[in-house]
Amino acid sequence: MDDLAELLRAGLPDEALITDPDVMAAYSRDMAGFCAAGAPAAVVLPRTVEQVQHVMRTATALRVPVVPQGARTGLSGAANATDGCIVLSLVAMDRILEINTVDRIAVVEPGVINAVLSRAVAEQGLFYPPDPSSWETCTIGGNIGTASGGLCCVKYGVTAEYVLGLDVVLADGRLLTTGRRTAKGVAGYDLTRLFVGSEGSLGVVVRAVLALRPAPPQQLSLAAEFPSADAACEAVCAIMERGHAPSLLEIMDRTTLRAVNALARMGLPESTEALLLAAFDTPDPVADLAAVGEVCAEFGATQVVPSETFAESELLLQARRLSLTALEAVKSATMIDDVCVPRSKLGAMIGGTAAIAAKHGLTIGVCAHAGDGNTHPVVCFDSADEDESRRARASFDEIMALGLELGGTITGEHGVGVLKKDWLARELGPVGMELQRSVKAAFDPLGILNPGKLF
Amino acid sequence: MDDLAELLRAGLPDEALITDPDVMAAYSRDMAGFCAAGAPAAVVLPRTVEQVQHVMRTATALRVPVVPQGARTGLSGAANATDGCIVLSLVAMDRILEINTVDRIAVVEPGVINAVLSRAVAEQGLFYPPDPSSWETCTIGGNIGTASGGLCCVKYGVTAEYVLGLDVVLADGRLLTTGRRTAKGVAGYDLTRLFVGSEGSLGVVVRAVLALRPAPPQQLSLAAEFPSADAACEAVCAIMERGHAPSLLEIMDRTTLRAVNALARMGLPESTEALLLAAFDTPDPVADLAAVGEVCAEFGATQVVPSETFAESELLLQARRLSLTALEAVKSATMIDDVCVPRSKLGAMIGGTAAIAAKHGLTIGVCAHAGDGNTHPVVCFDSADEDESRRARASFDEIMALGLELGGTITGEHGVGVLKKDWLARELGPVGMELQRSVKAAFDPLGILNPGKLF
C-alpha cells in the first residue's frame, strides 16, 4: 500500500492524490443501494491524460485494481470501490475543449457535467440530447460508461448515438484513439461503441468527440389521466404506431404521483391510475398535442390537459424528474429497476409489476419512459425489516425475470454494475457471456479494470 | 477439396452447394476494381441457420477460409473469394420474418434486398432509411457487413444506427444472439455494433432486428448551380451551421454532370462548376427549400431551381444515383474513393482532389454526400495504359492521405476490404491496430473468417 502511494505520487501533483481514509470513504460508492463497496487504497483525481496514464502504468506494474469514476450518480454500483483499489475519479478533467458549429461536434474531457455541456452548446444554437435525470450533476464520462438514456430518448436516442470518437487510456497505460470527428466512418471495427456502456471495464475514457444536433424548438407538453395503466399503455402504442414523434412520452403511476406531491406539493392528480406525459418540440406542437390528446381520449383518458405555456411544460417535466427522489422518501430504502421491454409489451410489464407488488405486499411505484418501453419500478421498503427487505429483493428479481420473458432486457439505461451482474448471464446466455469475457480479456488481460463489475 | 465438398454436402441440400468452376467464378468478386480475387473451392447458398452452422463447423474442422457474401455490390473487395475458400452467399436467406408497427422494428434474414425491405415497411407507414446507391440490388446482410451509408444519412444516419440485434453464426458454428428488440438496452458490451462494419470477419449474420422510423413526408428538392466547388461547400457549411435539417445534401462536379448527361441525357447544367442538390422531407419543404435557396444565393449560386413536383425531385435523385455508373463509362476503368472529412473541411478536400487530378493529368469526377463531408472522387483512367494506371493508383492514395491530413477517414461508407487495407494502419495507428487484431482473435481464433480482408 505504501509502495502504491509512493509510486502514484511520483507522477502526480500533491492535490491529485488522496489517501486519507475518511476522505476516501466519500468516493467509495455510487447511488445504488444493496451493492457492496470496499475501501480504496488511494483516490486519484488526475487533471491530464498523462496523469491517467501514470496511474494505469502503476496499477499494471503492481496489479492493483482501478475503479474509474464520474460523479457517482450511477444506480447499479458500477463505480463502487473494491478493497485495495485505486479509485480513479475523472471529475477534475472537466474542460470543454471545442464546440464546432459547422461540424456539429463537441470535444470534451470526461468530467464535464452533462448540464454544463448542454447549456454551452445551447448558447451556440446546438443541442446535446442525452438527459439522464441526474443531468445537473452527472458527468459525460459517466454517461459514456453507462450508455445513459434519459427523457428525450424516445425521439433522440441514447448517449451511444452521440459518441463519435474517444481517447482511451488502456489498462497498461497506452493511449488509444478510436472513431472519428466526421459524420460517417467505417475504418475497422467500431471500438468506440464497445467502450460506450462498458462501465470502465475496458479502458479509461479521457476525451470524447460528441455529435450535436441543431437546437429544436422548445417543447410543449400535455398530461392525460387514465383510469388504468393498461389504457395508458394502449394509448402509448397507438401514438407510436400512428407515426407521431413525441420528444417525451412518460408514464407515472398513482404511487409515484402521490410521492411527488408529498415531496414537492405539485398538485398532480392523485386519483388517477396512470398519468401520461407527452411533449413535442416540433414546428407546431399545439397541433401535435391536439392529435395525441385525441388518441388519449380514444383510449379512455378521463382528462387531457395540454400545457399552455413552456413554463407549465417545464413544471410537468420537473415532476417527472423528481419521481425517483420522491419515491425514495416513501420508505427507508428503495431498489430502482430498469427493465426495458418492446413497447408493445409495456402494458404487460406494468401490469405484471403490480401483480408482483401485490404478491409480496410491497409498495412499488412505477414511472416509465413509456415511448421506449423502459420502466423504472421502484421497490420501496423498510431496510430495518428483514422480511420486507427479503421480499423487496425477491420482487426486484421477479421484475427482471418478467422483463426477459416479455422479450426485454434487464437494463435499459442504468447498466449492470454490481446490482445485476448475476442476471447478465440469464439475458446473454453462455455463448454471449463467453464472448463478452473474451472481449474483456483482449482489452484488459490482467483484469485490473473495474473487476467484479458486469461479470 | 473432395473431402471438403463431401463434408459440406452431408449437411446441405443439393441445390445449396456449387462446385462447378465456371459457376463459382461468378461468385468470386464484388464490384471493386484492382482487388485480387481467388478461386473458391466451393460456393454455398444456405437457406437456414442450421445450414450456415454446418458450413462453419466444416470450415473449422478443415481449417478452410470462409468468405461471407451478399449481392457483391461492395466497392472494396471485402466479398472477394480467396483461393480454396468457401464462398458463403447469404442471398437465398431472403425472408422478411416480421414487421412490427408498434415496436417499429423489422426482423429479417441477411439476403433481403434493401429496396424490398424499404417497400415492405413503407406499405405499413414505416421507413427504413439506409439507402446506398445500390439499394435496388444490395442486401441487408451486405449493408450490415459494410455499415453502409447512402443519400439520406445527412438526416437519418447510417446502417449501424438501425441495427438493434443480430443472430450471428460464429467461426466454430455456434449461434450467438446479440442486442435486443427494445428501443434501449445496455446489458453487457455492445457486440451488435462490433459486427456492423466488420466485413464478415467476426461472424456470419443470419438474422437482424432493425429499427424503423415513421415514414416522413415525401421529399422535395432543389438544385443550385455554383461558379466554384468552394462556393458550393461554403453554402453547405452555412446550411448546416444555421440548423437546417435537409434529408439530402449532395454535390456533383462538372465532370460528373457531363458523365450523367452522356449516359442518360438528363439535361443537367454542364457549364456549372458544382451542382448542389438539397432536399427536405419536412412538413413544409417549400419553405425550407426557399430558406436554403437564399443561403445558396448568398454564397454565390448563379441559379437556384426548386423542384415543383415530387417527380422532378425524384429525377434529380436519379441523376445523383447514376453518378458512379456514368463516371464508369468515361474511361475503361475507375477507382472510387470514399474519403469522409469533417464538413468544415469539404472545400479543402474537393479542392485538393482537383489539384491531385491536375498534377497527375487525370480525370477525377467528384460527387459527394456533402452534408456528411463524404466525398466519392472517381478516378477515371485507361487500364490498358500502364502509366495512366500507375498515376490513377497514386492519385487514389494521395486522396486518402489528404483526407487523413484534414482530420478525416479513409472510408466513410464503402469499407476497407482489400482495397484499403494497407491504409487502415495509417488511420488507426499501432495501438488501434493491435486492439483490432485482438478483437478479431477473440471471435475467430483460427482466422478462417474472411482472411486477408481489413488487415
From TrEMBL, chains A, B:
Keywords tagged on the record = FAD, Flavoprotein, Oxidoreductase
Protein EC: 1.1.3.15
InterPro entries from the xrefs? Answer: FAD-bd_oxidored_4_C (IPR004113), FAD-bd_PCMH (IPR016166), FAD-bd_PCMH-like_sf (IPR036318), FAD-bd_PCMH_sub2 (IPR016169), FAD-linked_Oxase-like_C (IPR016164), FAD-linked_OxidoTrans_Type4 (IPR051914), Oxid_FAD_bind_N (IPR006094), Vanillyl_alc_oxidase_C-sub2 (IPR016171)
Query: Has keyword Flavoprotein?
Result: yes
Where does the FAD-binding PCMH-type domain lie? 36-215
Which cofactor is recorded for it?
FAD
Molecular function GO terms recorded: (S)-2-hydroxy-acid oxidase activity; FAD binding
Domain of life where this protein originates: Bacteria
Pfam families listed in its UniProt record: FAD-oxidase_C, FAD_binding_4
The record's family statement is: Belongs to the FAD-binding oxidoreductase/transferase type 4 family.
The name of this protein is: Glycolate oxidase
- Source species: Streptomyces candidus
